[in-house]
Request: fold
Amino acid sequence: MTMAPTRGILGGRPEGLTALHIDDGIDTRDRLVVVGNGMAGARFVEEVLERGGGDQFRITVLGDEPHGNYNRIMLSPVLAGEEHEDDIVLNSHDWYADNGVVLRAGVRADKIDTAAKVVHAADGTATPYDHLVLATGSYSFVPPMKGVRAEDGGLLPGVYGFRTIDETRAMLAATGTCRRAVVMGGGLLGLEAARALQGHGLHVELVHAAPYLMNVQLDPEAGAILKKSVESLGITVHLDVFATEVIGGDRVRGVGLADGRQIEADLLVVAAGVRPNTDIGVRSGLEVERGIVVDDQLRTDDPDVYAIGECAQHRGEVYGLVAPAWEHAKVLADLLTGTDPGAEYHGSRTATKLKVAGVDVAVMGINTPERDDDEVLVISEPRRGVHLSVVIRDDKLVGATLLGDTRKVAFLTQAFDRGAPLPEERIRLLVDLSDGAEEVGVAEMPAESQVCNCNGVSKSDICGAVSGGCSSVGEVMDRTRAGKGCGSCRSLVEQIVEWAADGELTVDPAASWYVPGIPMAKPELMAAIREQDLRSVSAVFAALAPGGKDDAKSKMGLTSLLKMIWGRDHLPEKDGEFINDRVHGNIQRDGTFSVVPQMKGGVTTPAQLRRIAEVAEKYEVPMVKVTGGQRIDLLGVRKEDLPAMWEDLGMPSGYAYGKSFRTVKTCVGSDFCRFGLGDSTQLGIDLETRFQGIESPAKMKLAVVGCPRNCAEAYVKDVGVVAVGNGRWEVYVGGAAGASVRKGDLLATVDSPEAVITLAGRFMQYYRENANWLERTYDFVPRIGLETIKQVLLEDSEGILAALDAGMQRSIDAYVDPWGQDAKQPATPGQFRPALPLVPLPKVPVR
Amino acid sequence: MSITELTTVPTTTGPTTTEHVVGRVAEIPPGEGRTFVAGGTQVAVFRLRDGSLHATQAACPHAGGPLADGLTDVDVLVCPLHQYAYRWTDGASTSGAAPLRLFPAHEVDGQVVVEVPDVP
Ligand code: SRM
Ligand SMILES: Cc1cc2nc3c(=O)[nH]c(=O)nc-3n(C[C@H](O)[C@H](O)[C@H](O)COP(=O)(O)OP(=O)(O)OC[C@H]3O[C@@H](n4cnc5c(N)ncnc54)[C@H](O)[C@@H]3O)c2cc1C
Ligand code: SF4
Ligand code: FES
Reply:
């Protein structure tokens, strides 16, 4: 019998949770107990260890969550599916054990007996301490609503807070079955949750009690602009209304609003603010107001009990960000280890830089003028989603709000933190008037400017790490922690490291590997494959992977590479291919496939259309659609029907599923259009005929247009060709209009269709040989640099043009229409056998 | 497809399980997976390149993806729909989805045998 395994412990130890604990009474070290293994508690332990506190203290950490310590900030990208939970672990169980710290994860502390100096926990244990640090953080506040709780007092099934990895996991699991979500709360967390759920395909409505979004940080105008940006993502926003009722009974079926409206929903995320976890303080008789009250030494009213992080209230302030929590950790570590017995905490000036629902936001100080002679400057461009404002008092910056454009944040933070002098022309605070000139380069940045707000790392800290021997961005980040909070400063950190290292930089090795399972960069890997004559994916793993171990996530990239290197002579292995390539169709959400026949240059014939129509009827195709790539898609086809359908169609594959050459879109050109300067249709057909089906690191999409009116969007294609008259054609490369939008760079103007085909072939082969796996040309071209590409492809600066032509020709010669081939004889047993014959699947709605 | 019942394995707690012959090993190309039915339960059976057989529920716990169409290696199975990975050792997801149910599977004379709980 098999039992469903229990959920993984994040940062857990495979053998279990126990760590060896020696407490033999001879140990003379003071007992330091920390309650809470969140971002403040764990950081405090690190800071203590860094100051040699391991020799002074026996450290025990009680944590309610069963996990190691993880980066809570990164739960948003985890929920959005952009980060894996494994990557957000900061300190694993092993880390605690290795550092001699006893972690009792999954144990909740209930009460402190401050007289006996003992912590009582929910598991019945009593833990004695000499010094006790409370770092219990906050919890999601669930406002009183009718029906929100189940009978046992827990939240109704389908209702979630957004604070822990367990809640995040539960929401992720729910995205599989739920269709409509309501998010309560239009602050940072609510917006992040809404965007993440929307990204999983749910219909999302956001209900916010205040009249504008992020009302704590933004002014009403900026809030209104943010609303537009959020709505443009497809999220419905309801403002100025309370959600008062959860409709459903046994699980969420809808949400009722105060004005009587009801919203249908099967998922409700409550992000209506957080409240400090102060229960333990209250029960233990400590002074508690909004948070556990502490003095400048972070001490509660009991001399041996301290509080840090979000649960602490210092000078009337309770913070909800990680930077102050980490400052607390440092000050208290200085104090307790005696490193700086006079250390004091005087409060944090919070400057926040965030990306909320895809929009850049930076906020510091106040957001509206408070006194008569406060100066205010506002730049508002609602159409662009940009709203910038600053508040100045006595010639000093006292507040700034940047929405949609945070280029000036470095300078403003500087001015805000240190009262740096402000420019006479105030507008320079918000925009660069020196038209064209970029933001202040890293070289000009003052040494003390803060780069990482979460961890309080300055430019000079980063430079210090580099001069202290760190030689890669990763090492600098490990040493200084810059970029390890919310991550929004990463690119700036990289720039500074590069500048400080002055070319002496080593790169993180894994970042340069072609695929994760083989520790080699692409050129090295290609050389090894050639030298050792490796012709199949399994042979590559056996020869080059550590321990000869195969790796699922590397297979697709290796298959593509082997096909490119060996052409016809590679040894195909179906298990090295993604399902799309195994069955030559694109897998859809219900496990069916789509069939897109080749339609060169977007040109078809009545006979072809008739055949497509017949096939669509015969196989009961749920949807026939004209694609954005100028051809026809038959969607929702059962896997087992594919071979027969291809036979009936008698048309070659359009490769709409592969990391390969896709389509060439064309316009009607000189044959029909009164403006046409060249026969774009024919050139498109010729390009597609020559390069059809060629595999590549990522998709290659082309277009040819008959004049610069650009009706087939050639300026934004991987290779785009534009007729400019007198038989001349411009060739653009590296354009994009998908997830990124980029106008292609003009590679050359040539004077015949043949020259276009030659140059396009050389560019594509150069890209195939040098691009990273899944790197589209819009990233590849800027990375290599247009000038270099021009020299290689136009002047043969590396003497490789003949080899590029030969390499491309080898692939062209290896082309076989996969439909024609596998329709007759399956490539492997059961190639087209249904993978899901019995279980009814969520059905795609049929039009 | 013929289904032969081999043995009924009694357990002290929970439902009983039965071993079923679901098909021939040769029906599964090396490194790939195929879907079978074992006593009314649909399973995806994988034959890794090291020769080992592994059986799991056929539909992905995340959103019902066809797991037999996924890519695998000695450590994990990757669902083709959203690339969630599940460990062969215990079925746990490495990316936060619910765990995958695994069933014991082995080879007897070229036949694939999968042990699943009896459907009541
Ligand atoms: C069918 C089509 C939409 C339509 O109904 O028109 C389509 C459908 C898909 N596109 Fe697309 N794209 C289609 C034209 C485009 C275009 C327009 C074009 O080709 O001119 C673009 C912008 C150009 C570009 O590629 O940059 C486009 C940019 C994307 C992207 C973003 C790529 C990027 O790096 O920016 C993805 C995601 C990806 O590749 O990772 C994507 C991914 C997808 C996938 C394959 C998603 C997936 O992995 O399952 C969709 C498959 C649906 C299916 O089941 O068949 N599709 N997609 C279009 C097929 C064109 C064709 O005939 O081959
Ligand atoms: C989704 C999300 C996104 C965020 N984004 C940002 C951001 O971009 N920038 C930013 O600065 N901040 C952000 N934050 C806020 C940031 O995560 C917190 O400020 C930070 O985690 C506070 O640290 P803490 O240690 O005080 O509390 P926590 O990290 O919550 O840790 C408290 C720990 O104590 C445990 N605990 C509580 N009570 C007990 C008890 N009685 N016994 C034992 N253990 C107990 C809890 O289980 C928890 O593990 C975000 C928060 C979330 C949830
Ligand atoms: S077809 Fe393209 S744009 Fe449409 S949902 Fe799929 S990936 Fe997104
Ligand atoms: S259905 Fe398997 S990962 Fe989404």
Q: What stands out?
A: Residues 753-770 of chain A form the longest helix (18 residues). Residues A 35-41, 62-65, 72-73, 75-76, 108-109, 135-138, 162-163, 189, 192, 277, 280, 309-311, 320-323, 325, 354, 454, 486 surround flavin-adenine dinucleotide (ligand 2) (CB under 6 Å). DSSP finds 26 helices and 40 strands in chain A.
